[in-house]
Amino acid sequence: MEKDNFNRRDFLKTSFKSLAVGTIALSALDVKKLFAESAAETKSETESAAKVISISEHPELSSVGGYIITGNYFIKRTGDSKFLVLSIICSHKKCDVDYTGEGFECPCHGSTYSSTGKVLQGPAKKNLKSYKATYDAEKNTLTIN
Ligand code: FES
C-alpha cells in the first residue's frame, strides 16, 4: 500500500513536471510565432497600404519646390505632376533624419544624405527609402505606394 502511494505520487509529480515543461515550451514557441506573425503583418500593412495625400490640405505642396514632412514621409513637389517621397527614417539605426534644405542629417550618429536621399556620409550604408508616388491632377491628390 505504501509503495503504491509512493508510485502514484511519483507518477503525478513526473506528469506534472512534464506537463509544465511542455506548456512552457509550447508557450515560448507560440509567443515567438505570434511575434513573427505580428511583425510580418505590420510590415506588409505599411508596405502595401497606399497613403493618399490631399494637396489642397497641404498648400506647401501647391508649388514646385514646396515640401512637407508628414508621418514618416518627406514629400516634395519637384514638378507640375512630380513628387519626391522619401522616408525620414535613417537607414542606420532608424532615428528620424532632419531636412536641412539641401539634404538630410541624422542627429543620432551623423549620417548625411543628399536631397534625393542618397547616402553622402555614414555610418548609414543604405539610402533613405524612396516611395513611388502618383499624382492625380483631377482630384489633386498624391497616392504614395
Ligand atoms: S541612426 Fe542615423 S546615423 Fe545612426
**Tally of individual helices:** 1
Q: What helical percentage do the residues reach?
A: 25-40%
| CATH C-level of the largest domain | Mainly Beta
Strand portion: 25-35%
Ligand list: FE2/S2 (inorganic) cluster
* Count of distinct strands: 11
Major beta sheet summary: 4 strands, antiparallel
Strand adjacency order, main sheet: 2-3-4-9
CATH arch. level architecture of the largest domain: 3-layer Sandwich
Radius of gyration: 27 Å
What pattern of helices and strands is seen along the backbone? HEEEEEEEEEEE
CATH topology of the largest domain: Rieske Iron-sulfur Protein
CATH superfamily of the largest domain: Rieske [2Fe-2S] iron-sulphur domain
Output mean pLDDT.
80
Shape: elongated
- Count structural domains: 2
Structural class: alpha+beta
In whole angstroms, the N-to-C terminal distance is 75 Å
Uncertain stretches of 5 or more adjacent residues: 31-47
What layout of secondary structure does this protein have?
Blueprint: H1 2-48, E1 51-54, E2 67-70, E3 73-77, E4 83-87, E5 98-99, E6 103-105, E7 112-114, E8 119-121, E9 130-131, E10 133-136, E11 141-144
Antiparallel strand pairs: 1-11, 2-3, 3-4, 4-9, 5-6, 6-7, 7-8, 10-11
Bound molecules: FE2/S2 (inorganic) cluster.
Residues 90, 92-93, 95, 106, 108-111, 123-124 line the site of FE2/S2 (inorganic) cluster.
